[in-house]
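Long-time lurker. I teach an intro course on protein structure, and each term I like to show students one example going from raw sequence to a predicted 3D structure in token notation. This year I'd like something fresh instead of my usual example. Would anyone be willing to generate the tokens for the chain below so I can use it in lecture? Attribution to the forum is fine with me.
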Amino acid sequence: MLHSSFSIILIAVPRVLQVGPRSDWQDAKNQGRIFDENRAKLLRDKIHGATGQVREVRIDQKSEPAPLAYDLTELQRDANRKYGFSAQKTLSTLQSLYERHKLVTYPRTDSRYISSDIVPTLTGRLKAVAVGEYAPLVRQILTKPLNVTKRLVDNSRVSDHHAIIPTDQGVVLSALDTDERKIYDLIVKRFLAVLYLPFKYDRVTLITAVEGENFYSRGKTVTDWGWKAVYGKGNDGDDQEKEDALPEQMLQAYHKGDQKKVREGRLLKSQTKPPARYTEATLLSAMESPGKFVEEELREALKQGGLGTPATRAEIIEKLIHTDYVERQGKELVPTGKGIQLINLVSNDLRSPELTAKWEQTLSEIARGKASRAKFMEGIRAYTVELVKDVVASETKFKADNISRVKCPNCGQYLLSVKGKRGKMLLCPDRECGHRESAEPQVSHFRCPQCHKKMSILEKQTGTVVRCSNCGFTEKLAEFKEALNSAKNSGRVNKKLIDTYSDKEALGTNLGDLLKAALEGKSE
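-- Reply from a regular --
Happy to contribute to a lecture. Here you go:
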């Protein structure tokens, strides 16, 4: 049954197009999809070579205001979409622009508006950023009274800190590194865009009747680029493709009653897609507005805060990655085997934002004097006890799927391979043991005394060692160097020792020079 349904979706035909302006077929119910391929082919053949007549031409004047100024979350989203920056990288770069260069305002804000007392400073801020490519854009703004609207100034929507905007500190763009330049560019252009006039265009809809079927052509003609001129014509600063975007078609030349001959009809097959994986941009959006994941009566409680705060969401994502619950694959965030097991093991309450919503709702009631703080805390304690009891009573166990072939030198257990802040690490599963070491060793020129393969240098808690990945032989590097120093001081060294421990072809290293000198009797 499932297979049959999927096959029908595979042959679904969403559009039938006619030549001339791009046109989409729709039935009497304004549906543009056909799930019967034979019916779609009959429709295509029906209109082939036929003559259509323009039945209706609609022209609607549209205006699109500039996007709001940045708060931290929106800036992190844009930096991730445009440059692939992690939320943490954006925050740290932004912090440098704020603390070191003094070029932007306080970054850890959840407001996208400024207060009225900031308005008198806008001219000074504009003059400060009037360098390079921004200079002509600033001049365009300053030739007229500033376009200050409620989309920028709203005291009621500013809490502790206002939106992120440039300061009146003069900027030397060459003093910024590459990442700082990119983040600064986003902030400046958004600041300038908010002060520009709206983007205006005519949305044109053309309805053509062919053999009793209706075909819709849609397009737009720009009448005033407005704020989009800041990003360059045809670019609105958003790299995401919008599903409802209108093609740039010149349709004003058509009039009601015009005759059009159909030159070609096409079938476009499409397939339903699974939901896209989260990127940091989309995950930040979900954390900021998780209302769709909870019941309707709890949505209001999450409107103000969401999950985490603008200042902590980046840290939450990084912690999930560093603890090996999630990993980055390109821009996508993908759960690991450990993360999937965690979701299956924990209580349903702990993996849903509904718990956060209920607590936020109760805290709000406490603030208004409608609920008891003591009773709330008592409930939290009782709930914690129940959770612990459920864990103790549960027979399900976590099974590591990242076990390496390397044994812990302390307790003998196989080490776990995880991604750490400094690359891949090998950790002992026994927390009381606590052994850890790098899983990405540095290849050395030392040869294993047992199998004569090249060994690697490893940084371990007990010190630096050399290890053979072929047979497992391990020796402390300090003891090896001590033996070499002893040979150096005596002025003699065993050739077999050199052949055993060093690659003679790599005598360009300090160790190689030492051994070569010892072999030739030239050690001092």
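Some talking points for your students: The chain has five domains: 2-61+199-268, 72-194, 280-393, 402-440, 441-524. Residues 134 and 179 are 18 Å apart (CA to CA).
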